Amino acid sequence: MTPFTYARADAPDAAVRLGEGGARFLGGGTNLIDLMRERVEAPGALVDVSGLSQAIEETAEGSLLIGAGVRNTALAEHGLVRTRYPLVTRAIVAGASAQIRNMATVGGNLMQRTRCTYFYDVEGSRCNKRSPGEGCDARGGFNRIHAILGASEACVATHPSDLCVALAALDAVVHVEGAGGARTIPFGNFHLLPGETPDRETALEPGELIKAVELPPLPIAAHSRYRKVRDRASYAFALISVAAALRVEGGKVAEVRLALGGVAHRPWRAHAAEAALVGAPASEASFLAAADAELVGAVPLRDNAFKIELARRTIAAVLSDLSEAGA
Amino acid sequence: MALIVNGIEAPPPADPRVSLLDFLREHLHLTGTKVGCNQGACGACTVIVDGRRVLSCLTLAVQADGASVTTIEGLGTPTALHPLQAAFVEHDGLQCGYCTPGQICSAVAMVEELRRGVPSNVTADVAAQAIAATREELRERMSGNLCRCGAHNGIIAAIEDAFGLETAA
Fold first, then answer.
1. With an 8 Å Cβ cutoff, are A235 and B110 in contact?
2. Sheet containing A24-26: which strands, arranged edge to edge?
3. How far apart are CA B63 and CA A310, in angstroms?
4. What InterPro entries is this protein classified in (chain B) (predicted)?
5. Residue A13, number of CB atoms within 10 A of its CB
6. What is the mean pLDDT of residues B148-159?
7. B-chain residues near A96 (CB < 8 A)
8. Confidence at residue A108, expressed as pLDDT on a 0 to 100 scale
9. Which of B40-54, B60-74, B125-139 shows the lowest per-residue confidence on average (mean pLDDT)?
10. Which residues of chain A, if any, have pLDDT below 70?
C-alpha cells in the first residue's frame, strides 16, 4: 500500500470536514483495504467512518432509518427487518462470510466496487473504470461473470452487492451529507450505468458521505424473497440474484417489486417486468412473460449468454414461490 | 488509546498501513493467527474483536484501537486447551493445521451468533427467534473458513461436541 493518513470521525459533519481534499471514507474495510493492497486504489488519506450511527430507528412515518455504520450482521438480525423486510435479511446472509458481514457497514456496502478481474489486474489489464480512456479487456476477454443489461462499450462490469438488490426493490432512500449540506437520493438514482464514464459509479458528489439508508413502509415487503444463484453454495458472488415481493388478489398480481443482481453495473430494478405483471394472472406463464419483457434488451458477451436464461428461470421460480406461499 | 490483545494493552502501530494481522504476528509475535490469502477469501486470519469474529487481514490495526482482540493464544494454551481445541484433537478436525486457529476463533464466536438467533442463509424462517443448530446451519456458518485438507467433517463434529450442540445429520 502507498502511505496514507488515518483519522476517525464518528459524526457526519466532522467526517465531511476531515474528508475535504480527496480523502476516502473507510467503513468496515472489507473492500477498500483489499483494493488498496492490490493497488487499484491509492488514497492519500482515509477517514474512518465505521463509528457513524449504528442505530436502526423507526420514524414517525413508519420508515426504518438505518445508520451508515450499522454492520451487515446487525441489520440482518434486527427484529423489524426480519419481519417487515425479510428480503433484506435474506440478501445479507446470502453474501460474503459471517466474518465479513460482522465487519461490513451499510454505507460501505453501497460503495462496493466491482469484482471484475480485469479491474483488479492493475499490471496486466486495461480497464476504463480504473484508468479512464485506457480500454476494456473484459469485453473481449473472459466475461462469464459480466453484465447482460445496461453495459456500454467502455465497461461491462457488474455491481457485486446482494443487499443493494433488495434495497433497489424496496425504493430505499439514501441520506447523504456534504460540504454543501444534507440531501436525499432515491436508491434508483444512486448507482449509475457505465456509459462513457465507468469510473463514476454513484450520484455522490466529491466529498459527500452516506449517513443513513431509509426503508420506506411497504406492507408487501413482508412477503418477499431473495434468491442467489452462484458457483458454490456459500461464500461466492452472484451469477444471478433476484429480490422480489408479491401480492396476489383473486388470482391476479395486485402488487409486485422485482430487482436483479449480477446482471448490470448497478442493481437492476425490473420496471418492465413489474409493469407486465400487474393485473396479469399469477401463473408461471405470466412470470416467464414478465421476465422476457425485462430481458428483451439483454446483450450477451462471449461467455455469459447463460445468464439470460438463468435470470429468466430464477425470476419465474422466485415469483412462483411467493405466489404458492400465499401472496 | 491502545488495543487490548488477549487482556494485555498494546499501543497501536505508528504506520496506519499495518493490518491487524501483521500487527499481531510481526509486532506482538503472536504467530498463532495465520496469513492465508491476505485478501478476505479464506478465513485463516480470523480473530475475535469485541466479541465479533472478523478478518484481521482486512482490518487496519489502527481501526482496532480501543477494542478488545482475542486470538488463539487468548483462548487456550498447550497445557490448558480450550474445550474446542481439545475437541479438534479428539475428532481430527485438522490435517496440516494451518487453518485451525482461524477455524477455532471463528467457531467460538459463531456459537454465540447462533445462540443470539442471528439467521443464516440456510435458516428456513428468518423471522424465527430461535434457530436449531442443525449440521447444515453449522456448515453454512463456518463457510468463511476454508480447509484445503478437507477436514470439515471433523471440524463440525468437534464444534458439536465442544458446545454440546445436538444436531440432526
1. no
2. A5-8, A45-48, A24-26
3. 41
4. 2Fe-2S-bd, 2Fe-2S-bd_dom_sf, 2Fe-2S_ferredoxin-like_sf, 2Fe-2S_ferredoxin-type, 2Fe2S_fd_BS, Aldehyde_Oxdr_Iron-Sulfur, Beta-grasp_dom_sf
5. 13
6. 97
7. 144
8. 98
9. B125-139
10. 327
Write the CATH number of the domain with boundaries A222-324.
Answer: 3.30.390.50
**B61 and B108 both lie in a single domain:** no
The complex scores an ipTM of 0.98
State whether B68 and B117 are in the same domain. Answer: no
- Can you say whether the dihedral through the CA atoms of B146, B23, A92, A114 is positive or negative? negative
Q: Which domain covers residue B121, as residue numbers?
A: 83-162
Q: Give the per-residue pLDDT at B168.
A: 56
For residues B154 and B109, membership in a common domain is answered with: yes
Interface test with chain B among A2, A99, A117, A235, by most B beta carbons within 10 Å: A99
CATH code assigned at B121 = 1.10.150.120
Decide if B16 and A234 are in contact by the 8 Å CB cutoff: no
pLDDT of residue B167: 66
Chain B's closest residue to A43, CA to CA, is: B17
Do B59 and A103 lie within an 8 Å CB cutoff?
yes
Per-residue pLDDT tens over the stretch A22-59: 999 999 999 999 999 999 999 999 999 999 999 999 99
Please, what's the b/e burial string for A46-63 (b: 16 or more CB within 10 A of its CB; e: otherwise)?
Answer: bbbbbbbbbebeeeeeeb
Q: What is the pLDDT of residue B1?
A: 85
Same domain (yes/no): B63, B124: no
Domain shared by B135 and B154, yes or no: yes
CB contact under 8 A, A82 and B123: no
CA A229 to chain centre: 15
CA distances from A273 to A259, A280, A319 (A): 9, 11, 11
B119 and B70 in a common domain: no
Q: What is the CATH number of domain A5-50?
A: 3.30.43
Count of domains forming chain B? 2
Question: And the C-alpha cell for A90?
Answer: 435474506
Nearest to A82 among B55, B126, B140 (CB): B126
Domain boundary among B28, B59, B75: B75
Is B58 in contact with A29 (Cβ distance < 8 A)?
Answer: yes
Instruction: Give the list of residues 6+ apart from residue A311 with CB closer than 8 angstroms, or none.
Output: A148, A240, A242, A260, A263, A291, A295, A298
Quick check: is B112 in a domain? yes
Q: What pLDDT score does B166 carry?
A: 74
- CB of B158 closer than 8 Å to CB of B135: no
